[in-house]
């Protein structure tokens, strides 16, 4: 039997109003452990999508301004993606994967013929389906992303943010030489300003003032990668079945795995996006 969207979609959708604040959106995401919310009108029809990436980018945008608004002052309608792409419940999974890849999105509200919201299908749903039904199709090395964008523990989180924006990625791998020792994700950055206590760094510069040595001392509060990274990340061997990697992601609630060789050296990264891309290339089942 060919799998359709209705077989794997999530029927319980967490929704939000465009007039709600980002603070409420953040609380809903944390409470339900999800990365996106469907924005609905008064008739519960989808009119937008709000993702943790949207929140992260807005937080960073506000933090760089002279007068930074807090997340309880910013409305969902200011940040949400308003051009909603929906899908029907009888669509084949391969076609749903193709839409996500082509549109560069991570979730599709599922609606009936009248536009009423029935559920949502996400990269997580497709990754779970891949782990269950598509073993033996690809090795990790065949679909992983390489080379990997990396940082070291002493880099600032501002560098991480720039790299994510520059490369259009949602995670970077922290390395010690060639060995992966941590991961930083957009989720980490999204809620950074609300949770982290940045380390204090002292900079001392001697200055000769008319034969007298003075010291100028500046205190910097700079959060670095070591403050926010998830240490000792799960990894997968490049020769493993991609379905096994997909299963590890689902079982552990993560969206990516550093890929290593037999010596434990980083050779790539496999993400839910890579799994969805692989699924989009398969014949319908």
Written overview of the protein:
With 285 residues, the chain is of the alpha/beta class. It folds into three domains: 5-122, CBS-domain (Roll), CATH 3.10.580; 140-187 and 226-280, CBS-domain (Roll); 190-223, no CATH class. The protein has helices at 5-8, 22-32, 52-63, 76-79, 93-103, 123-133, 140-143, 157-167, 186-190, 192-195, 225-228, 242-252, 272-280; strands at 15-16, 36-40, 46-51, 107-111, 117-122, 150-151, 171-176, 179-185, 200-209, 212-221, 230-231, 236-237, 256-260, 266-271. β7 and β8 form a beta hairpin. α6 packs across α12 (242-252). Residues 193-198 and 201-205 have low confidence and may be disordered.
Topology summary:
Layout: H1 5-8, E1 15-16, H2 22-32, E2 36-40, E3 46-51, H3 52-63, H4 76-79, H5 93-103, E4 107-111, E5 117-122, H6 123-133, H7 140-143, E6 150-151, H8 157-167, E7 171-176, E8 179-185, H9 186-190, H10 192-195, E9 200-209, E10 212-221, H11 225-228, E11 230-231, E12 236-237, H12 242-252, E13 256-260, E14 266-271, H13 272-280
Parallel strand pairs: 1-2, 6-7, 12-13
Antiparallel strand pairs: 2-3, 4-5, 7-8, 8-11, 9-10, 13-14
Helix pairs in contact: 5-13, 6-12, 6-13
Protein name: Inosine-5-monophosphate dehydrogenase
Domain CBS: 9-65, 80-140, 144-201, 229-285
Organism: Thermoproteota archaeon
């Amino acid at each position: 039997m060919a799998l359709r969207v209705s077989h794997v979609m999530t029927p319980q959708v967490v929704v939000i109003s465009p007039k709600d604040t980002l603070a409420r959106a953040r609380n809903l995401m944390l409470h339900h452990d999800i990365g996106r919310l469907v924005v609905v009108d008064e008739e519960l029809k989808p009119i937008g999508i709000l993702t943790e990436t949207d929140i992260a980018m807005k937080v960073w945008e506000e933090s760089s301004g002279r007068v930074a608004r807090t997340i309880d002052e910013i409305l969902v309608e200011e940040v949400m993606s308003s051009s909603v792409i929906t899908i029907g419940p009888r669509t084949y999974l391969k076609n749903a994967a193709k839409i996500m890849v082509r549109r560069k999105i991570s979730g599709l509200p599922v609606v009936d013929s009248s536009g009423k919201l029935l559920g949502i299908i996400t990269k997580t749903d497709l990754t779970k389906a891949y782990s269950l039904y598509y073993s033996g199709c690809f090795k990790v090395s065949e679909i992983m992303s390489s080379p990997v964008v990396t940082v070291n523990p002493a880099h600032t989180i501002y560098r991480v943010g720039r790299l994510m924006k520059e490369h259009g990625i949602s995670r970077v791998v922290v390395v010690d030489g060639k060995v992966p020792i941590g991961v930083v994700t957009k989720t980490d950055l999204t809620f950074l300003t609300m949770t982290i206590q940045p380390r204090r760094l002292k900079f001392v510069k001697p200055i000769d003032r008319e034969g007298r040595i003075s010291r100028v001392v500046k205190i910097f509060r700079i959060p670095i990668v070591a403050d926010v990274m998830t240490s000792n990340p799960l990894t997968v061997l490049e020769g493993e079945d991609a379905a096994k990697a997909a299963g590890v992601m689902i079982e552990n609630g993560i969206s990516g795995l550093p890929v290593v060789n037999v010596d434990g050296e980083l050779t790539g990264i496999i993400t839910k996006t890579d799994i969805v891309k692989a699924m989009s290339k398969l014949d319908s089942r």
